[in-house]
Batch of 4 targets.
Target 1
Amino acid sequence: GEPLVIYNPLAIEREDVVEAEVEANSTGGIQVVDGKGRPVPTQVLSQTNGLARILFLARVPSIGFAVYGVQTGKAGAGKSSLRVSDRVLENARYRVTLNDGGDIAGIFDKSLKKQLLTAPARLEFRQEVPREWPAWNMDWQDRANAPMGYVDGPARIRIVEDGPVRVALEVQRTARGSDFVQTIQLAAGGERVEIVNRIAWQTTNASLKAAFPLTVSNS
């Protein structure tokens, strides 16, 4: 198949999601294999004009590389711990729950048996009226004020990824004249809840803050 060299710049061995665009002239499916020819979890995001965007799990040594092969064939690399519905994403580590407003209402850590949020994680509108240089200054007085509002909704929530490598929910909202699209992702074996934000910002005299009130704190 087509070889892909995956480099890990971190000082620890790492298993993580790789996204790649590869040539795919067949509709028979795609399977990625490791250096010993063993299949790894593989997911096709899109396939058009002879190119495919794929996801797969790669394990790469510290400050090193590994070679994986992209082959034609039906993907099948064992059972996956991933689950997704219109309000819940789940992998072996976390169960992430959304409320009807589109906010992350809870992140339950299965290994700790602990809820990580005391309240929903929200996007806050913060007032910005500095005494001078409003293009870049941010005054402490504005920091001390409560949020002047939130990205609330109504929210349109849909499943955009559902595979053995990653699941994702997309949340679309409009608030205070700006448009927000958040993609909340959870990967197989992953220990991160990833949120991709695409924002068409049209709100004046304001900044946007991602607030996530945790159940642990350090004064």
Note: The first helix runs from residue 140 to 144.
Target 2
Amino acid sequence: LEDYENPIQRAAIEGTSTIWRDMKVWEDHIYVTTDNTQQNNNYDGLLIIDMSNAPDDITFEFQRETFNVGNGNEQLGSCHNIYIDEDGYAYLAGCNVGEGDIIILDLADKDNPVFVGATNDRYSHDVYVKDSIMYTSDVYDGIFSIYDVRDRANPVFINGAPTSFDFTHNAWSSDDGDYLFTTDERGNAYVDAFDISDPLDIQKIDSYRPLDTEGRGVIPHNSHYLNGYLIVSWYTDGFKVIDAHRPDNLVEVAKYDTWLGQDGDFNGCWGAYPYFASGKMLASDINSGLYILD
């Protein structure tokens, strides 16, 4: 993306067939999870891409380590999501290991991550970590959970709360950690705002959904926080920017619709990424590809 108007594909890595992968970057490595069923007696596990000599030489390896989590030794195969915190720990969510809880890996050796710890109580679809506080989206329980992970080997559950449509798909905190913003991946659902300044007394303080498509089954997917704004992928409603400077009064201030078809269903924008120093933002559309926004 040196020239934002002319992106260049530098590599294509073939893996098992799936509609869903997630990737995060730590220094000069990319870590990729694949959410799929086993194919030809094989899973992708964790794909590690070494970009230290890019673009001339890009190397990769599929790692399928065995972890002792909950029910015994199980080989890592499928995971829905991954997050990497500021201290170089990777958190894998929705895996085929244990109950589908969070698996924590130390990336000190970037080519050979080391298992550190795990939760073992419920399936977590997504995970976000900031300042050694972990937020999990426990989609089938309809709640988010908050953990203290200062000791990564022993995550400690603090508290949790239900979201408005009982299908907690994603959670992201404000920079100060006082507020949490969640999405429910269901038709007509909201972005919810919670005051978590006292994690033992969580309060829901607002819910937002777009009025112009209310009742048409539009589905919010993921929300990210950037400088007081929420950057949200909202399927057929596209890419949205919501002012969250006052978390108890969420207001949509901008949008770019990547899908011009019928409202509702799982079409359109399901990925949004705002964390470029340039101010550019990305929208990933299931049907029509990559959009670079200024």
Note: The chain has a mean pLDDT of 94.
Target 3
Amino acid sequence: MLISLFPSQSSKINELFTFSKDEYVSLITTSKTALQESRIRRSKLSLLLFDCKDQNAIQFMNEMDWNSLSDEYQNIYMRFKGQTDFDFVLNQYQTNQNVQIKSAALIGIGSTLNDDKIKYVFDNCLSGLVKAQEVPTLLNALKNNEKARPKIVDFVISQFNKILELYGDGFQFQTIIQVAYDSVTTEEEFNKLNLFFSKIENSTDSLSTVKRAGEMTRAKLDLVNKGFI
């Protein structure tokens, strides 16, 4: 949440935390730790890896054997691996029979930083690259991807009819709309999304989601405009 609110302050936020290999080496392969403590450790590791680009944390993950990771750290590893080895995570998604690993690999697919792979994911995610029910999860991973995030608004607008065809106006549809608004970082994107939905807002009851999501995004942009972010 801190990073999403204050992306320009990531270096200062990084100063609040330090990475210690000893803190993780005995825990990352086992789930036998208190739930709250485990959440804190995972959140801290994610922050250091993906937002602060902490070199010690990155080196530590590079040295890990993913087969030995506990379930709760596989998502982090696959997201990390997805940034450098798209084919590895795609292969795990397509061939691994372990449900947890497949789910983790899905996050990795959406984490690629390669422009061609990002285009490939957007071009094929509604056409069988992943299971239809997993597309919202994939889009959420793309939203957390600094290189893919700016493409989400245009994707949802251009593929809206296909999205509506696949999901109707149910929960998964609403999730995709929420992800689209959550991906907005500029007034231009916000206005483009609002203009699009203003023309179709009577086509489905569930577009009340648009109003709620839009209000939250408007509040975030107002903070930016006032210099708080």
Note: The longest helix spans residues 208-225.
Target 4
Amino acid sequence: NQAGKIGIWELDLRTDVSVWDRNMYALYGINDITTVPTFELWSATLHPHDRERAVRQVKTDIAGGVPSDSEFRIIRQNGAIHNIRSLATVVCDATGAAARMIGTDWDVTEIRSLAEQLREEKEALISSEARYRALTEAMPQMVWVLDAALQLEYVNPRWVDYTGLSLASMRMLGLAGAADAAGVLTITAKREAVPPREFECEARLRRSDGVYRWHLVRSVPFHDATGDAGK
């Protein structure tokens, strides 16, 4: 595994001949370190889908005499595909003409794999939240979510229809805007159990016309991405 190891190379732009250190050979999966590393040898290791872009970028950077920062995939002799990050600078001769290119390469395969994993997990979370919202918004029961500080985070449309109170209103009023004093005490006491656990209780909830009616309240604890408990 060459992750984290840096290979150093130099390319003579006049002869197209490179000099690689041992890490470069290892990074590119070339076992014979007596192999003369040319620009053509390097480009031949590139993944077919990345070759044209990577070669074009390097040649453009050389022509412009600007530092090069590129990332591409390579295929090693054993068939393994790796992601390589390459940084290089152009060195000019006394006349100002580009003479050499000096650079460093390192394997970023594990970093890219982790980034892809995090992206997939984020997409899965977003999809899960979307499914959860679609389910709760279609339910005929009132659904409401309290955070660890007993602040309303979510109410479904059935809740708004019944109470006449939007989420914004509920955030201003708090739990007292939804239940009578006894109901607030009951829900709060059960909610503060350690560790949080599922419970059922009866409480009088406020209807949109201001009348309080008895309801069976069922609470299910869950944890958000930070580990804080909600219900």
Note: The longest helix spans residues 109-138.
